[in-house]
Amino acid sequence: MNVIVIGGGGREHAIISRLVKNPRISKIYALPGNGGISELAECVKISAEDIKGIVEFAKNNAIDYAVVAPDDPLALGAVDELEALGIECFGPRKDAALIESSKIFAKELMRKYNIPTADYKIFDVLDEALTYAAKSDFPIVVKADGLAKGKGVVVAENFQQARDAIISCMKNRAFGASGEKILIEECLKGVEVTVLAFTDGNVIVPMVSSKDHKRAFDGNKGANTGGMGVIAPNLSYTPEIANYCMKNIFQPTIDAMNRENRKFKGCLYFGLMLTKDGPKVIEYNCRFGDPETQAVLPLLEADLFEIMLAVSSGKLSDVKISFSGKYSCCVVAASENYPASSETGFEIDFGDASKVDGVEIFHAGTDCKIGSNGEKVFVTSGGRVLSVNAVAENPELARSKAYEAIREIYFPGMRFRHDIGAV
Ligand code: AMP
Ligand code: GLY
């Protein structure tokens, strides 16, 4: 089978590293892919947001199956258009992707179907939002309704911060139409957990839990980022909590989407807060998380492509999905100023990183070039550059292996958090 994978980050590198193991796949194209992915698949310079370009490419290259990994093409309806060509897809259609692309839709779904989440109010008038914020007890959370490249959420500690966030969304239109409407939410306290789950729209199978570390610096300081590292499973997520979530959050979400005529197929991402009143949903994403995927897929024992086929054909209960019982620690190597923009194009020296037992290195912002000595070199091309994941028998060992490997790697300005899995 000929497969296209849309996207070009660490998540897509991790997905493709598993797809290449399936003997039914003869060829993988990545649109656009990255330096690391180019070693496993043919990278084609078509952006993940260029739906026309993707459809044209699929038409001309006898594509049998498509994995649409990032949020933007899912929200833009890439699956709908590819399915219209008769191509089977992993990922939800546009009407179901709304669970991520409109935070207001997600909150109203939860309110309607009694799925536990933070209290909230919706605003589409600037002055009303400011008046409400002025009267609130802080912290509060200000969220743009639509997709904002992971930057549309501000946990405001005081009125000044809330005011800046509201004005930036609703007046200055920092996120364009995505910020026309906003949510102001109660700030939940507790431990954050990510649960990724395969679902064919009826059956839902959670993967091992994980813990993302979203802030830029050690000690959970600094700006929110796309994610600086992951430990999996999440040690706070006990079997009792997992049972509660299955009964009160996971299955009810799938049922709610069906009742709304928005059958969700693909990977559904549950961002949860374990509060003193029980687990609550912080957010849904309509896709695999990044960098959670780089930590979770190395623990998956079943064949990823067979699971994807079962998801898209509505036969998820026919496959056995098992995990190794080991632990992953994934540390992200970022460019100097990430999440602000940084200089790129620096050559990456990997040292002996890949020789460390249990380590896999997934590329995110990299390109592959021919160096001055005629050999292949990798250069930086983005904010998050690499995800270095180690699998081991226990979390401490996974941590020490991941850090042993990342300390072998060098590029100018490289930085990483030192406390992944320890906070
Ligand atoms: P998101 O962009 O929706 O992933 O949100 C980014 C981060 O903001 C989450 O991972 C949480 O750490 C934080 N956050 C979002 N909503 C809330 C909330 N209601 N209470 C506390 N923290 C939140
Ligand atoms: N790691 C957070 C996300 O994928 O949205």
Average predicted confidence as pLDDT = 97
Number of strands: 22
CA distance, first residue to last residue: 43 Å
Helix content: 25-40%
What is the number of helical segments per DSSP (H or I, 4+ residues)? 12
Spatial extent as radius of gyration: 21 Å
Beta-strand percent range: 25-35%
Please describe the biggest sheet, giving its number of strands, its sense, and whether it closes into a barrel. 5 strands, parallel
Plain-language structure description:
This protein has helices spanning 10-19, 51-60, 71-75, 78-84, 94-101, 103-112, 126-134, 159-170, 239-259, 292-296, 304-312, 395-406; strands at residues 2-7, 27-32, 42-43, 65-68, 88-90, 120-123, 140-144, 153-156, 182-186, 191-199, 204-206, 211-212, 215-217, 221-224, 229-232, 266-275, 278-285, 327-334, 359-363, 366-370, 376-380, 384-392. The strands form six sheets. It has a five-stranded parallel sheet with strand order 3-2-1-4-5, sandwiched between helices. It has a five-stranded antiparallel sheet with strand order 12-15-18-22-19. It has a four-stranded antiparallel sheet with strand order 6-9-7-8, with helices on both faces. The radius of gyration is 21 Å and the shape is globular. The mean pLDDT is 97. The protein is of the alpha+beta class. The structure holds adenosine monophosphate and glycine. Glycine (GLY) is lined by residues 212, 226-227, 285, 289-290, 292.
